[in-house]
């Protein structure tokens, strides 16, 4: 917030803002690339210039499920209202054609007994109420069918069939929207950042995945894809080139037992697109790693899919995830407050190719980290010794200051008596 003119001159304020902007340049080396998959799993893709719009009407049920809730509720309400109004008009026409609207038929003479098609239908409002009663099977008892008009019986059968179809479609649509698979994916979480570190002597790309619910995901599998812009030798530019990369799993398949948060590991070997990327090259890479977790919901049996992605800025080189699963009183406890926490560890800054060609780099890196760890321990121990010595000296000084000297008293008789207070 700028200062007032009466306190600080405006020229000084503008000069200070300019100096701050010069200290912190905001110019980026390269423009930020748009993500293909957002962190919440949504696809960052816009469909434009679709000419064949009629294909969406051929699959009307999927179209209704994919609509937004406000549009679905409007269609749900209007479908019932329109059907009630349509059949109300038909009932009114049946009654009008039969002469039930004639006032003379309301109080017929004793010699002539008049039987209407539908009792107590004298206006369009009463026909509309009777249409609602027929379609939703309320049946208040004031209006009822008679056997006088075969056309009215046909309209009754037709309205019942149409009402059942509308109920089946709209209620099924509402159920599918409330039980969609991506709703279950809201409780499947991924770590905000991924890491690259050494595991079992190999550089590995790792991230953490967890499930917040106690109901498990059956036959859960994890797939990783690298999306990047490539160019073929013929000069063809592929803006979204997808490459599958393997996941390190002791089982032959990619199925995981997601009962607790797991660290998914990808070994950077010759098959990996990250094989030639070093720590310095990572920030300049225009790539995106997409993670897809699929499985069957245990409670509903519906297949669900959770997605996320990691760009180069979200990959930490030389870090490792902290452990969050501990055993407390015979129960394994998971601390989700540390779900995305990482610690810095020793890792070579070269690429996996250079590490395979020169294995001594890893040994040197580990030796340096061991030496630095020992030096830090020595410094820590020396600091502890110095602190203990300072504390002991300070305690001695305080104790010496508390010692009271002896005081001698001289009596009038000339004898001396010593007393200590």
CATH topology of the domain at 184-343: Immunoglobulin-like
* CATH level 1 name of the domain at 184-343: Mainly Beta
SSE series: HHHHHHHEEEEEEEHEEEEEEEHHEE
Number of helices: 10
Membrane topology: Multi-pass membrane protein
GO molecular function: ATP-activated inward rectifier potassium channel activity
GO biological process, one term: regulation of monoatomic ion transmembrane transport
Pfam families: IRK, IRK_C
Describe this structure as you would to a colleague.
- The record marks 167 as: Role in the control of polyamine-mediated channel gating and in the blocking by intracellular magnesium.
- The chain has 421 residues and is an alpha+beta fold.
- It is built from ten helices and 16 strands.
- It has helices spanning 10-23, 54-58, 60-66, 69-98, 124-136, 150-178, 181-184, 279-282, 352-357, 360-402; strands spanning 188-190, 194-199, 202-211, 217-231, 237-245, 255-256, 262-267, 287-297, 303-311, 315-317, 319-321, 325-328, 331-334, 342-344, 407-410, 416-419.
- Residues 1-20, 22-29 and 414-421 have low confidence and may be disordered.
- Among the domains are: 67-179, Helix Hairpins (Orthogonal Bundle); 184-343, Immunoglobulin-like (Sandwich).
- It is elongated.
- The strands form five sheets. Strands 1, 2, 3, 7 and 10 form a five-stranded mixed sheet that branches. Strands 4, 5, 6, 8 and 9 form a five-stranded antiparallel sheet that branches.
- It starts with 9 loop residues before the first helix and ends with a strand.
- 17% of the residues are buried.
């Amino acid at each position: 917030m700028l200062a007032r003119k009466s306190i600080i001159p405006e020229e000084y304020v503008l000069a200070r803002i300019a100096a701050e902007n010069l200290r912190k340049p905001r110019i980026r080396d390269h423009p930020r690339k748009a993500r293909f998959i957002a962190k919440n799993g949504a696809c960052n893709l816009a469909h434009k210039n679709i000419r064949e719009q009629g294909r969406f009407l051929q699959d009307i049920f999927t179209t209704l499920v994919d609509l937004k809730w406000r549009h679905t509720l409007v269609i749900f309400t209007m479908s019932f209202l329109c059907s009630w109004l349509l059949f109300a008009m038909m009932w009114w026409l049946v009654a009008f054609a039969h002469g039930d609207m004639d006032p003379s038929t309301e109080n017929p003479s004793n010699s002539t007994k008049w039987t209407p098609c539908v009792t107590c239908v004298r206006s369009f409002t009463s026909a509309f109420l009777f249409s609602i009663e027929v379609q939703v099977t309320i049946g208040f008892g004031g209006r009822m069918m008679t056997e006088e008009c075969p056309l009215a019986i046909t309209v009754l059968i037709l309205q019942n069939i149409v009402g059942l179809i509308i109920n089946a479609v709209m209620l099924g649509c509402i159920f599918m929207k409330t039980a969609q698979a991506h709703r279950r994916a809201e409780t499947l979480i991924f770590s905000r950042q991924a890491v690259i570190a050494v595991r079992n002597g190999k550089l590995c790309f790792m991230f953490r995945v967890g499930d917040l619910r106690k109901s498990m995901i059956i036959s859960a599998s994890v797939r990783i894809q690298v999306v990047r812009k490539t160019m073929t030798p013929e000069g063809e530019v592929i803006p979204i080139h997808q490459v599958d990369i393997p996941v390190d799993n002791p089982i032959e398949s990619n199925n995981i037992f997601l009962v607790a948060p797991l660290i998914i590991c990808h070994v950077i070997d010759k098959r990996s697109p990250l094989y030639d990327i070093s720590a310095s090259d990572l920030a300049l890479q225009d790539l995106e790693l997409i993670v897809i977790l699929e499985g069957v919901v245990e409670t509903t049996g519906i297949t669900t899919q959770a997605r996320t992605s990691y760009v180069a800025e979200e990959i930490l080189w030389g870090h490792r995830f902290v452990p969050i699963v501990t055993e407390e009183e015979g129960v394994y406890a998971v601390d989700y407050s540390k779900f995305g926490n990482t610690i810095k560890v020793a890792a070579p800054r070269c690429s996996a190719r250079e590490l395979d060609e020169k294995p001594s780099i890893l040994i040197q890196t580990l030796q340096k980290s061991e030496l630095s760890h020992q030096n830090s321990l020595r410094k820590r121990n020396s600091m502890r010794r110095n602190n203990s010595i300072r504390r002991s000296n300070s305690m001695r000084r305080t104790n010496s200051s508390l010692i009271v000297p002896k005081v001698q008293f001289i009596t009038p008789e000339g004898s001396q008596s010593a007393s200590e207070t």
